Amino acid sequence: MDTVDASVHYSQAIDEKPSLLVLILDTNPYAWSTLSATLPLERALASILIFLNAHLAFSHANRVAVIASHTKSARFLYPTTTTTTTTTAAAAASGSEDPLRDANKYRQFRIIEDQVQASFAELMNQTTAGELVDAKETMMAGALGLALGYVNRLVRVDDGGVLGAGAAGEVTSMNARILVISVSGDLAEQYVPVMNSIFAAQRKKIPIDICKVAGETVFLQQASDTTRGIYMQLEHPENLLQYLMMCFIPDTATRRHLVPPTQINVDFRAACFCHKNVVDIGFVCSICLSIFCTPPEGAICTTCNTKLDISALGNFGGNPAVVLTKKKKTKKLKQSKATSFSNEASATSTPGTPAS
Amino acid sequence: MSGNIRGFGYLESLPPVTFRRLYQQPATALAIFRRMLPNLAKTIVTTLLYNETPVALGDLEALVRPESYRLACYAFSKLRRLHIITENNLDVSLDPVFKKNFRLALTGGHVWLLSGGDNRGDHHSFGVPCNTEDKKKITVQFLDDYATRQFEAILHYMVGTHNEVKPSKGVITLLTKGGLMERHGAGSVATITKNGFSFLLQDGNPQIWALLIQYLEMSEELGMEQTDVLHFLLMLGSLELGQAYSVNTLTETQKLMLADLRDYGVVYQRKSSSDRFYPTRLATTLTSESGGLRSASASMSSAMVKDAEEGKGFIILETNYRVYAYTDSPLQIAVLNLFVKLSTRYPNLVSGRISRRSIQEAIKMGITADQVIDYLSAHAHPQMRKSLVTLPPTVVDQIRLWQIEGERMRTTTGFLFKDFHSTQEFEEVAKYAEELGVLKWKKPARRCMFVTRHEQIADWLKRRASAQQQQLKKAAA
Amino acid sequence: MADSDEDYIATDDEEIGAHNVGKSGRHRPAGGVAAAGGGSGARSKNGNKPGGGAQKRERWEDIKRSWDNVVEGEDGSLSSTVAGLLEAGKRKRLLKDTTPLQRGIIRHLILILDLSSAMMEKDFRPTRYLLSLRYACDFIREYFEQNPISQLGVLGMRDGLAVRVSDLSGNPMDHIEAIGKLRLDEGKGAPSLQNALEMSRAALFHAPSHGTREVVIVFGALLSSDPGDIHQTINRLVEDKIRVSVVGLSAQVAVCRELCKRTNAGDESVYGVALDDKHFRELLIDTTIPPVTRSAKMSASSLLMMGFPSRTVEKTASLCACHSELTKGGYLCSRCSTKVCALPMECPACGLTLILSTHLARSYHHLFPLKNWVEVPWKAASKSTHCYSCQIPFPHPPTKPEELSAPAKTATGTSVSSRYACTVCHNHFCIDCDVFCHETLYNCPACQSSVPKGKVSNGAGGRGDPMEVD
Fold first, then answer.
1. Domain final residue, candidates C323, C338, C358
2. ipTM of the assembly?
3. Which residue ranges have biased composition labelled Acidic residues (chain C) (predicted)?
4. Which fold has domain A17-255?
5. How far is A3 from chain C (nearest CA, A)?
6. What is the C-alpha separation between B319 and B342, in angstroms, rounded?
7. pLDDT tens by residue, B360-396
8. pTM for this one?
9. Domain extent listing, chain B
10. What is the pLDDT of residue C18?
11. Dihedral pair phi/psi, residue C441, rounded to 5°
12. Which of B1, B294, B295, B371 to substitute to test the interface with A, most A CBs within 10 Å?
């Protein structure tokens, strides 16, 4: 009997790698204040701390990092480098270094909790009211960048400078994932950096989970979709802890055995650069890939100032053109394969250029 | 394969009452959660943890993909055997004691975090640190050296190499009682047994546990409270290295244990009358899983724990059966000597080759081919790990073949199921057993089969029987 | 026989190469003498100089031995030197030109694989043939990763003929499948550069003017068996604005050099000869980076119409228009609502280019490259103790004043204080984060983490100015 147990346990233990969780907390005070009725920030933080502890409880070797994505800055809450100030602050915050308290709490949990709370308090103290005027944005791009940099160091096994080795099946010492607890919406200004972060995560096979407490962001939805993370819009924000403990706790290896939370339609429509309209058919500059909802004025790209040749577009979106009989054949071809198959020779003679 | 040595899994066979008592300490609840459950089971526990109402078993099973059915079964059976979940009809909930104390472990007893009426815990289960400074500073380095010295002394004693530190009498009794060593006649020198060899080939963490489980059994005979002993052992795993802990809050049993654990190198105490003790690295890694050891403590310097670290392997095995081991530790050389014909020794390197004879000699001593292979791959040099397969497949196969040469018959311990009522019943059970991967042999004509373990099947039969009865009742009504 | 063989240098190279293989009995060892086989093995930086030719000192004339670089450390071990070399290697990889240049994002590329008997050589393991097929698959994946809205086709050279492997299309799986079928064959006959180039010229004839036209050749042989004058073909390629880059597997061949030089406006750096399999892969993967637009005339800019479909999940499965398979989810064409199962794709019904907006975003980093970070001297090092991004601690500044005033850049190109600073936000990073940010992330985490004083609104913090035409 016993021998069987031991062997089963042994074989089981092999394939469980430790995992790293980087939690990005959107701390935009403006957004949280609108949530204060259902889920005050303090309560959310408490839930998050329990969640972190639960993650650490999974394995001795599990690691966490917490990053705050604030209105004007993104920074690490844990681990922090300014240890001297935070530990004293932690002692002050928790009352005193009461030995009884130590005995009631697993040390690893306590250290992380104290540090997160202390640096969080510090962050909030440094935020002045003046900064918060029309501060609806959050530094998500920076936070993602920090998170990826941190994951990159912890996870990577130095390949001795072999660049191509990654393709042959990367050896990593840990599974890593990023969890974003997001409360604010619009990130339009950070579009390019956020997208770059998403692709970096995808290449490194790091899933980005999104726990959307409030607000709407298309980008984060795309982030979780591209990196095969979990996207969840909370219907009852007050039950944050329950959501966290149910859906976001399994690591990447365990997830392979679980049915993912229901997939949703992902909005992949793009916002045009000219009027910020959301479009499903748009015009793209071939030089800088800017998206326009209508051909720009004077056929000059507003981003890269290139004179664009819009004749190749044909007449899509415009009025039906009168087709000249002379070049009937080429036109038919072009009408059907408008964008990609128009050679130089016939492009110039295409009628029906939309009025600009 | 761990042979006949009981490892940590032995705890699973404890009676339910013991578990209930174990779960009364948050530290123990945490340790069992961390060390004994597969990840999937852990996920199930966290899912249930903050659910006040029981959840239907079917709903939980629906979370798992159909392909991973076997894993889910394994997770549930583990939870059942550890009495973490309780089942009422088809609803599942966490054991209330476990739930309360595991929550306490996670929250540390902050009232403001919980909606329920749990009180601030006052359990001290994570050890009470000494608040006064020690007169002599004890460094982590010192503790590591101490642990290495003590534990290696035991291993050296087993292989019979000469070492300046001799293990204490208690340790020797433990080894003989555990069947790792045996004594022929009263005054003679103890020699190592087959089990002892398998023990030597294990990693550091299972070795320590094997000793401690043995200790646990022995302590019962000495009249010590078993749960007390276990509480203490599991608590040790949550302590911090280099921190002094107070003896005062320990129970009498636990104070007695300190003396023994000191001999194993698990804790350090300057004098037996001292009011403080230091857990060593052997203690603090007790409840970490073997896989986690390597990255968890990159700075680990204790020798036998070091072996478990991936980066610190020292053996190079070539396809021509030559073995190069970068080591000067007499212990490792002695272990290698069990199955390698060593030929040359340099200050930091020994070399030799694996041959048919050396392997067969090892097999004669009771070492299995799998143990040899496991040992080699666990201690493979980082250079070897760079390739996809750590060990050369030819050598691995050949080692296995050499073992098979002497084996015409293979024994499997297990259970015979027979006397099924109908062929249909037999087929159903056989199918279930096959899905679980425990079925070894079946003979439909005689309606009997042989399985390696029976609890899950018994469980399943019981549940099926009760379901059938309910159906019958319904039908009757 | 091709013109290349009457070239003295080429035959000389060949001899040395053969000798080398025979002597060592292994496949080409890296560095040292092996570079002889490579001629101008690595893409030389000074490749722009016109007509260097025979006067130029060839790379193999300066023999470099790896052991020359290694110096024993104070403790008698090599570990410190090795660590330093590693860091220098990382840094070297990194220091690219980061002037933002206009690049041809929409590419039309023909990959020509040598399928001749020369590919059966075993100097690359398992054979040149199989290795080049494997890397070709990697190349295709990477190409579509980097250039999601581009087209690709594959040709082969075998028995003096050009063989069509797959047509110009935007679906990576088609090409990979087609190449997979080649695996069962083996190299045969002599290659014909002229035939292959003519065929690719024909294939690229219809490529629209806003995209680039490119040919990448993997060339294992040292000869080309052509039906006519290859120089005329080269002239026609130049006329058609087709750029050719070549990855050689054995030795430098004069006609390839000329081919690259002529079609790339005198830039020879696109011709590389692989030293070993790693280098081969690097050379091939390098060509996935969109090429720089050299002159405004090179490619006409135009406006393209594209659809951005959203993903839908249906309750019941239905057939997709592209593969006629039953799927439950997919993307509906924005114009005609035809269901396709993968993007990017051209709508099978109405021909609209369907693309994910994320695909467009994937190319943005080519247009706004992250500037190189600079080495930090000890004097400025005291302001940081940890890497901004990964929190790894930095070494402390030395106490001696003479060490403090050491130049920021060490002889190997690494930073003396192990710190690298972003030129925009002046935060310090470690070498690993430097590599990561420039090769994977393409952002500066610090610039993105704080609002600069001048409040940059376009999210281009840490980036260069808008691109310019070279």
1. C358
2. 0.72
3. 1-15
4. Rossmann fold (3.40.50)
5. 44
6. 17
7. 888 888 788 888 888 888 888 888 877 777 888 889 9
8. 0.73
9. 8-113, 140-284, 313-405, 415-476
10. 40
11. -85, -40
12. B295
